[in-house]
Amino acid sequence: MHRFIKAKHQILKLLLISLMLLTCACSQLIVASSGKRIADQNHGKRTLGAFIEDQSIENKALINIRNIAPELGKSRIKITSYNGTVLIAGQTTSSQSKAKAKDIVKEIRHVQRVYNALEISKSSSLLVRLNDSWLSFKIKLALMMDKKTPSNRIIIATENSSIYLMGLLNQKEESAAIARIRQIRGVQKIIKLTEYIEQ
């Protein structure tokens, strides 16, 4: 009975947060860049081999982090790879742990660059993670419905209401994607990790 009441309270909190996000504006939205991005030569084409390689990178990264650095066992780490660009997101306990995670990932074969977005804090709550999942769903749906954005060449990763935009895009497509994401209520920050292709 106690568990049922606790679960009910969690659901009510989530509904309250969702309502707040729907009624608030995103006037404080920040768009940031990860820095220099490599121009891709494949003109946006992504082979099955590249897709499989990204899946392999994600799996190897998590396995290697657990095996090589047991101290990271208490950290909450998410790995997202797209065309060899790897995002490390989540929470860890110290700057040393954060640096260790990056060192492990960048040694994996076919990793081109690593963006380390690990936060030094306790693990995010269930409500925050549910909200992140909801935001990702809304953004992916919006991009799929928008003819200006090639959603098949975009990956969205969300962490604590910060949106990481990954993919193979030209500047016009990237701008269109960012403009669409900015319209989604609840988004606090957009970080561009896209790889440029020729228009």
Radius of gyration: 18 Å
How far apart, in Å, are the first and last alpha carbons? Answer: 59 Å
Structural class: alpha/beta
Counting DSSP H or I runs of 4 or more residues, the number of helices is: 5
The helix/strand order is HEHEEHEEHEEHEE
Per DSSP E runs of 2 or more residues, the count of β-strands stands at: 9
Return residue spans where pLDDT drops below 50 for at least 5 consecutive residues: 19-28
Beta content: 15-25%
Overall pLDDT level: 84
Q: Which outline best applies?
A: globular
Task: Provide tags for this entry.
globular; 5 helices; alpha/beta; 4-stranded mixed beta sheet; 5-stranded mixed beta sheet
Short description:
The chain is of the alpha/beta class and 199 residues long. The protein contains five helices and nine strands. Helix 3 (95-106) links the parallel strand 3 (85-92) and strand 4 (113-116).
Structure description:
With 199 residues, the protein is of the alpha/beta class. The protein has one domain. 44% of the residues lie in helices and 23% in strands. The chain is built from five helices and nine strands; from the N terminus they run αβαββαββαββαββ. Strands 1, 6, 7, 8 and 9 form a five-stranded mixed beta sheet that branches. Strands 2, 3, 4 and 5 form a four-stranded mixed beta sheet that branches. α2 (48-68) crosses α3 (95-106). The longest helix is centred in the N-terminal third of the chain and has 22 residues, at 2-23. The termini are far apart. 29% of the residues are buried.
